[in-house]
Amino acid sequence: MSPLLYFFEELNLAITTLKISKMTSQQYGVYTYMTLRKTIADTLTSLDIGSVFVTNGNEIDNLNQTLSTNKGPGRLMKSIIVFDLEPLGTVDWQRSAKLCETLNIPTLGVIPSNYPTVQDIDDSLSDFIFVPFTEDELLLRAKKLVTSTENISDRDVIVQDQLVISPHSYEVTLKGRRVHLRFKEYELLLLLASNPGRVYDRETLLNRIWGYDYFGGTRTVDVHIRRLRSKIEQPDTQFIETIWNVGYRFRPVRKD
Fold first, then answer.
1. What is the pTM of this model?
2. Which terminus, N or C, of the chain has the lesser number of Cβ atoms within 10 Å?
3. CB of 105 within 8 A of CB of 81?
């Protein structure tokens, strides 16, 4: 083989390898970007659950704009906001994480199996799923995200002192002002407030809110309870009581 022919064969091989590498980076296991999005949307639709995808900065801006309108949160009722971390990238994910802190709406992260870390992601999202995944796993996670409110009507609004929890609209207000909770914080509050006086140990709370397949420890419960308290409690107003060496309970505010 002549040197020139060898050079062109090596060049062709390098170009082919580059194309394959670029194509692979846009794939998630057996999924491509578009088929993944369609699979998730179709699966959620089969459960009568809406889906809002966030994959780039423009979609973050659009979601922010929707939420800023008076009817925005209502339009997203019984919907799951899906954050696709592969196309989002680090910068846009950081913007998304800040947005998640203000959402009472369930969020689902779609994460490549080789993603470097999920600790910060887990703190921001309601749940996440690694790609590739099965349809059954997606169905189970989606059902879990909407289970806490799917059978709740307007008459189930919880009022304690000046704290109002509206499960049907995912809203919490304190003294007439809306409280911005992360979804896990909201789920914790809803569970405790729905059963005042009942003591929940940390393991039960972890299983009920995060699921049995959650790989973190019960310390996660304490962290979220602390954040929740900082948003709804004041020195003279306590809603959540710590039962030492056991867990937590929601208790009525004593009135003089």
1. 0.57
2. C
3. yes
Range of the domain at 91: 28-149
Is 189 a member of any domain? yes
**Which residues are within 8 A (CB) of 112 and not within 5 positions of it... i.e. 6 or more apart?**
28, 85, 86, 130, 131
Quickly tell me which residue has 């600790």 as its tokens.
119
Query: Within this chain, do residues 64 and 90 fall inside the same structural domain, yes or no?
Result: yes
End-to-end alpha carbon distance in the chain = 97
* 207 shares a domain with 94: no
SS (H, E, C) the chain: CCHHHHHHHHHHHHHHHHHHHHHHHCEECCEEHHHHHHHHHHHHHHCCCEEEEECCHHHHHHHHHHHHCCCHHHHCCCEEEEEEHHHHHHHHHHHHHHHHCCCCCCEEEEEECCCCCCHHHHHHCCEEEEECCCHHHHHHHHHHHHHHHHCCCHHHCEEECCEEEECCCCEEEECCEECCCCHHHHHHHHHHHHCCCCCEEHHHHHHHHHCCCCCCCCHHHHHHHHHHHHHHCECCECCEEEECCCEEEECCCCCC
Give the end of a domain, one of 100, 125, 149: 149
* 71 occurs within a structural domain: yes
